[in-house]
Amino acid sequence: MDDELKKETAADAEEMEKTVETAETVETVEAAEGTVEDPVDETQKEIDALKAQAAENLDRYQRCLAEFDNFRKRTAKEKAGMYDDGVKDTVEKLLCVVDNLERALAAQQNVEEAQNDPFVKGIEMTLKQFKEILQAMGVTEIAALGEKFDPNLHAAVAHEDNEDFGENEIMLEMLKGYKYKDKVIRHSMVKVAN
User: Fold this and answer.
1) How far apart are CA 87 and CA 136, in angstroms?
2) Extended strands (E) in the chain
3) Are 121 and 74 contained in the same domain?
4) Which of 188, 183, 87, 98 is CA-nearest to residue 145?
5) What is the residue range of 155's domain?
6) Residues 6+ apart with CB under 8 A from 104
7) Residue 152 located in a structural domain
8) 148 in the same domain as 133
9) pLDDT tens for residues 159-176?
10) Residues of 120-142 as b/e, b for ≥16 C-beta within 10 angstroms?
11) Is residue 27 part of a domain?
């Protein structure tokens, strides 16, 4: 019986060894399967990474495009502003010539001999041409006489109480004012009533 028991024990031990070997083989296969990634999963990860990179590149591109558009608009606005400032400065310097031509005509207005004088006619034509050029550039005279006083457009240099005029009404324009577009080049110098 001892032999039989030994045989049975040896058979059990052998079976146990086979079970352990099978378990080890299964563990090795499972471990190998765990380390070897599925090619579909690997490709999907690459696709996801490329999509993320593409989204980042698109975002950077759109930001650069927006920045360039803002730069272009800002530059155009600055360029237009510089042009307007240049026109305003130039016209401001030329207004004294217009004022002097108007004064010359006003001085000759009451003289009968001046009516047919070619010199006076030349001054009239020069003044007319100056005003046409200013108007073509967008420069306009500021209305003053008979208007309500507006400190944005007029500079009051005198004040007089006079019942013939309404309150804050301009009764005399001493020097014409001019605007370029919506900007005042020179305020009208006026005398205000009441």
Assistant:
1) 12
2) 139-141, 154-160, 169-175, 178-180, 183-186, 188-193
3) yes
4) 188
5) 139-194
6) 123
7) yes
8) no
9) 888 888 888 899 899 999
10) beebeeebeebeeebeeeebeeb
11) no
What is the average per-residue pLDDT within 12-38? 61
Predicted pLDDT at 110? 76
Q: Which residues pair with 189 in a beta bridge?
A: 155, 175
pLDDT digits (tens, 9 = 90+) for 97-129: 999 999 999 888 877 777 788 888 999 999 999
Which pTM was predicted?
0.62
Question: Do the domain assignments include residue 73?
Answer: yes
Arithmetic mean of pLDDT over the chain: 85
Proportion of the chain in helix, strand, coil states, percent, rounded to 5: 65, 15, 20
Min mean pLDDT across 32-41, 62-71, 108-117 is at 32-41
Token pair 């990860």 in the structure block, residue: 45
CATH code, domain carrying 179: 2.30.22.10
H-run or E-run covering 128: helix 118-137
Question: Domain count of the chain?
Answer: 2
Q: Rounded distance, CA 51 to CA 45, Å?
A: 10
Q: How confident is the model at residue 135 (pLDDT cuts 50, 70, 90)?
A: very high
